[in-house]
Design goal:
The complex is a heterodimer. Chain A has one domain: Immunoglobulin-like (Sandwich). In chain A, 0% of the residues lie in helices and 52% in strands. Chain A is built from no helices and twelve strands. In chain A, the strands form three sheets. In chain A, strands 2, 5, 6, 10, 11 and 12 form a six-stranded mixed sheet that branches. In chain A, strands 3-9-8-7 form a four-stranded antiparallel sheet, with no helix packed on it. In chain A, strands 1-4 form a two-stranded antiparallel ribbon. In chain A, β10 and β11 form a beta hairpin. The radius of gyration of chain A is 14 Å and the shape is globular. The relative contact order of chain A is 0.33. Chain B contains no helices and eleven strands. In chain B, the strands form two sheets. In chain B, strands 2, 4, 5, 6, 9, 10 and 11 form a seven-stranded mixed sheet that branches. A four-stranded antiparallel sheet of chain B has the order 1-3-8-7, with no helix packed on it. Chain B is globular and about 40 Å long. In chain B, β5 and β6 form a beta hairpin. The chains are: A mainly beta, B mainly beta. At the A-B interface, β6 of A face β5, β9 and β10 of B.
Chain lengths: 115, 113
């Protein structure tokens, strides 16, 4: 069965420290991978996406993610977090066999940034 | 540029009352349109998607329905709300021709009391 797993429900990080959010997927077909961020009470904003090519993807707000096919992972990273990065982050996966919008989302990782 | 709007932003409705959430997309034509629901503390669940006017696909059996009366308008409805319908509802769109990324509206909070 297809699945997307974000192992960390909650992460606390100090401002200025690095951040890494994990995402693992289980899909039979070639996946298309996304990271979205959601601030409280708001919709989801696309951070970055991977369709093909370079496996290290740069996104907005200083985020990057690396696709590792051998590990079925698409982890999100930021070298130095800012207080404004406190939010919930969702990994999502789609495939060529699905309509583009039929993404499967992970359960999300809540990020708290401390001073 | 493309924009997506959905309303109302917040709604408190009694059990058994009807529901209508509306979503419109501007700046594109023939988009794919979607309704997602986000229950408290959980991820996103795709409820409906539409690839054209009058074409609605339901992903999960439920108390809700969707309609697409115009190319860029997508409506989520219910005749009688249940407590379990409470949640955060997100409308989204993607380019219907080349697929690609989906983009979300700002969401609508529904509390059924």
């Amino acid at each position: 069965a297809q699945s997307v797993t974000q192992p960390d429900i909650h992460i606390t990080v100090s401002e200025g420290a690095s951040l890494e959010l994990r995402c693992n997927y289980s899909y039979g077909a070639t996946p298309y991978l996304f990271w979205y961020v959601q601030s409280p009470g708001q919709g989801l904003q696309l951070l970055l996406k991977y369709f093909s090519g370079d496996t290290l993807v740069q996104g907005i707000k200083g985020f990057e993610a690396e696709f590792k096919r051998s590990q079925s992972s698409f982890n999100l990273r930021k070298p130095s977090v800012h207080w404004s990065d406190a939010a919930e982050y969702f990994c999502a996966v789609g495939t060529q066999t699905d309509s583009w919008g039929k993404l499967q989302f992970g359960a999300g990782t809540q990020v708290v940034v401390t001073p | 540029s493309q924009t997506i709007h959905q309303w109302p932003a917040t709604l408190v409705q009694p059990v058994g009352s009807p529901l209508s959430l509306e979503c419109t997309v501007e700046g594109t034509s023939n988009p794919n349109l979607y309704w997602y629901r986000q229950a408290a503390g959980r991820g996103l669940q795709l409820l409906f998607y539409s690839v054209g006017i009058g074409q609605i696909s339901s992903e999960v059996p439920q108390n809700l329905s969707a309609s697409r009366p115009q190319d860029r308008q997508f409506i989520l409805s219910s005749k009688k709300l249940l407590l379990s319908d409470s949640g955060f509802y997100l409308c989204a769109w993607s380019n219907g021709i080349s697929g690609n990324t989906i983009y979300f509206g700002e969401g609508s909070w529904l509390t059924v009391v």
